[in-house]
Amino acid sequence: MKLTLDRDLCFLDLETTGLSIVRDRILQIAIIKYFASGKPPEELSMLINPGIPISEESMQIHGISPKDVANKPTFQQVAQKIYDFIGQSDLAGYNSMRFDIPLLMEEFARVGIEFDITRRRAIDVQRIFYKMEPRTLKAALKFYCEKELEDAHDALADVRATIEVFNGQLEKYEGADYFDDDGQVIPSPIVPQVQALHEFTNDTRFLDATQKFRLDQNGVAVFNFGKYMGQPVAETLVKDKQYYHWILTKEFTSQVKQLVKKLVKDYERETRE
Question: Is residue 1 part of a domain?
Fold first, then answer.
């Protein structure tokens, strides 16, 4: 892979029971891990019994039926193996920041494992593609690699295709001009460095995958939803404990709940000092 690594990097893809990050479960997970040491990449792929029904819409996409996973392990049974395989790696995938990573975080949270991404960098290959050549994964593979996508929506096939697209993007855009949001020509942000690609493929204004919180122009975390839209999160929740507990008990992601706890804790400590 034409990429400078200072930390291991895991490309991942999930097939799931549906599209809800909070309610749905993983049916199949595939990970290909690249090592900063330069040793050959390793693969992890497994089917998982979700313990809940699979939506008809999802079955039409990935073709995984209840009988395919009936005798497979539950996520709880394989969670530690997946967690250990990923280790402290950075993460990459296709639409991974909006779906795969937060859904995986939810699965870990349910079995009591905190999957902290605050110290990990993440590359969303879809964001590179959408910013440079908006298309689907199938079209991306055709565009960058002149290949047809076989076994689409099989997790391992998709993650392999994502890696091929990513390599094609690195070759195509390195050194090319890029137009920013103001229409100004700037040097290409597509360089073989994880940090640069993390910054390019993530909107750093938002603090969580579901975009419930964002940073305002002063760098303060504010609400991006509800009755407190635009108001400081920590200060507001310290004053309105009922709303704070409502967030912690309702259907928000574990990432949102962890973030709320941290913001409130940090605010209370700062006000005491």
Answer: no
Measured distance CA(178)–CA(175) in Å, rounded: 9
Alpha-carbon dihedral sign for residues 220, 225, 228, 234 = negative
Residue 223, amino acid: F
Q: Which positions ≥6 away from 272 have C-beta within 8 Å?
A: none
Decide if pLDDT at 109 tops 80. yes
Kind and range of the H or E element at 75? helix 75-86
Give the residue from 143, 170, 201 where a domain finishes.
201
- How confident is the model over 204-224, as a mean pLDDT? 94
Number of H helices, E strands in the chain: 11, 9
Instruction: Name residue 31's amino acid.
Output: I
| Predicted pLDDT at 181 | 57
Phi and psi at residue 123, in whole multiples of 5°?
-115, 120
Closest CA to 150 of 160, 269, 15: 160
Tell me which residue of 198, 234, 113, 131 sits closest to 105, measured CA to CA: 113
How many domains does the structure of the chain reveal?
Answer: 2
For residue 2, being part of any structural domain is answered with: no
pTM: 0.71
Residue 241, phi-psi category: left (phi > 0), alpha (psi -120 to 50), beta (remainder): alpha
Q: Are 13 and 163 in contact (CB under 8 A)?
A: no
Mode of pairing for the β-strands spanning 26-34 and 9-16:
antiparallel
**Range of 255's domain?**
213-272
The CATH code of the domain that includes 34 is: 3.30.420.10
How confident is the prediction for the chain on average, in pLDDT? 92
Q: Are residues 172 and 217 in the same domain?
A: no
- CB count within 10 Å of CB 1 equals 14
Q: Report pLDDT digits (tens) over 145-200.
A: 999 988 778 999 999 999 999 999 999 888 777 666 555 667 777 889 999 899 88
